[in-house]
Amino acid sequence: MGARHGLRRGGQAAAAAFSACPFLIAFAVLLALPGLAAADTHYYTFNVQMTNVTRLCVTKSIPTVNGQFPGPKLVVREGDRLVVKVHNHINYNVSFHWHGVRQLRNGWADGPAYITQCPIQGGQSYVYDFTITGQRGTLWWHAHFSWLRVHLYGPLVILPKRGEGYPFPRPYEEVPILFGEWFNADTEAVINQALQTGAGPNVSDAYTFNGLPGPTYNCSSKDTYKLKVKPGRTYMLRLINSALNDELFFGIANHTLTVVEADANYVKPFTVNTLVISPGQTMNVLLTTPPNPASPAYAMAIAPYTNTQGTFDNTTAAAVLEYAAPTTLPPLPLPALPLYNDTGAVANFSRNFRSLNSARYPARVPAAVDRHLLFTVGLGTDPCPSNQTCQGPNGTKFAASINNNSFFRPRTALLEAHYRRRYAGVLLADFPTTPPHPFNYTGTPPNNTFVQHGTRVVPLGFNTSVELVLQGTSIQGAESHPLHLHGYDFFVVGQGFGNFDPVNDPPKYNLADPVERNTISVPTAGWVAVRFLADNPGVWLMHCHFDVHLSWGLSMAWLVNDGPLPNQKMLPPPSDLPKC
């Protein structure tokens, strides 16, 4: 990990200044008061380099940050500034996204390639410089170019301000656990082949806990994640689903989990045996260990949730919750996880989420709505080029779209085009805000499933309140889609199965304490309604966090214009912004 400093340098000079000026002493006393703690600046260096890593008895050279897999943990406090200098030493272009960080007025630090920046080319560098404003909890960082995030990811832990605790008893220890996927094959070759043939890509060979597959896989017992705990203590697990293409069930045998936070927003605590977490989502859960455990160790496990009609990695990864280090560990019984297609279990779990909505952490749900939008979200097809044979549905190529628009990657970054008002040939401000060809979205799909292609955005005036209904479709099979919105959190005011009913569904919305998130799964053959206030100027990507669907075009962008006041306008671009 690169060097990390706070604002603690120059101690002798500071002491001399304080002795010379009583005013500074008074100012220091003010800063010591709760809520007025001085913010720190944290400096990290990311060297993106190829590193040999062995899993499942397969050794391959993978992109890593500083030779670490998963990558380094970044720890800051609410209000702190984070400065990350990225040096790209590999042959792939790369960029990094700080998933869930709002990046107020500062889209230049958001990271999605060709949206807020051109990628960092091999041999080049870029500094991500941003401040964490009004956020605390578990977020994460990952590469945002092609499928590179399969190896380039790590936790971003945002502690509360000094002097501020949690709205629940302080845990004995906090532990980040990242769920991931391991491919024996080169993932860039996997997706490139799929895009060429039009078929679904080959699936992963294992799921991982903090990069380790564990004993359920071939020759992987030595690569098992072990969480050492003490009896009668409460631990906070900072869970992150960094898997490429899979929603995951998680549980610990003979233990319960109390969910206290989702996507760095506190929730009303609720206790479960099993949870489900989508790619991109984070969840803080409290694990209270019994005072007299019946066994020295218990199994933790993750397994997929999916309704896809295609192939998927239907394996289970295991890790160990260890009270005492046994000399020999017998095979541990796995926790009982739901079946891979148990949509009912997912819906029951999802219904538990409510914002804390306390005086300290209010739920500021937009009550009045300026713009109502309906987006269909799902798969589709492209015709096969005349000079080749394709392996997608009925000889076509798989595609994906929002309102039948499959996102076409621009030749330069949208944010820079917007900042310089050079839109021609880069983007169109005509993204359809309702489905262009209405049909029975969750019923029999239309005969024509071809998608349109374009780099289209929805323009929004500053401070516009938005209600967006995301409607799943059954084209090429109904499945859930974890939608992630950059630059914003949104309130999840309603969800259901079947087709959204604009007359009968809105009266059932929860406008009192809806959960606030940055990533939400559109239910299989269902819909979800979210609200947000467009108070962050810039160009912000919204996309499915299954990377296969992202590669097929399941994304769009919001162009939020500047407000009238100086603090409502985009910041100017940094001088080292990469060029395309």
UniProtKB/TrEMBL annotation:
Cofactor(s) in the UniProt record: Cu cation
TM region(s), chain numbering: none
Top-rank lineage group of the source organism: Eukaryota
Molecular function GO terms recorded: copper ion binding; hydroquinone:oxygen oxidoreductase activity
Ranges of residues in domain Plastocyanin-like: 47-161, 173-324, 431-562
Keywords: Apoplast, Copper, Lignin degradation, Metal-binding, Oxidoreductase, Repeat, Secreted, Signal
CC cofactor note: Binds 4 Cu cations per monomer.
InterPro entries for this protein: Cu-oxidase-like_N, Cu-oxidase_2nd, Cu-oxidase_C, Cu-oxidase_fam, Cu_oxidase_CS, Cu_oxidase_Cu_BS, Cupredoxin, CuRO_1_LCC
EC number: 1.10.3.2
Keyword Secreted: yes
One term under GO cellular component: apoplast
GO terms classed as biological process: lignin catabolic process
CDD domains, sorted: CuRO_1_LCC_plant, CuRO_2_LCC_plant, CuRO_3_LCC_plant
Catalytic activity, reaction form: 4 hydroquinone + O2 = 4 benzosemiquinone + 2 H2O
Signal sequence, start to end: 1-39
Compartments in which it is found: Secreted, Extracellular space, Apoplast
Family: Belongs to the multicopper oxidase family.
Function: Lignin degradation and detoxification of lignin-derived products.
Entry protein name: Laccase
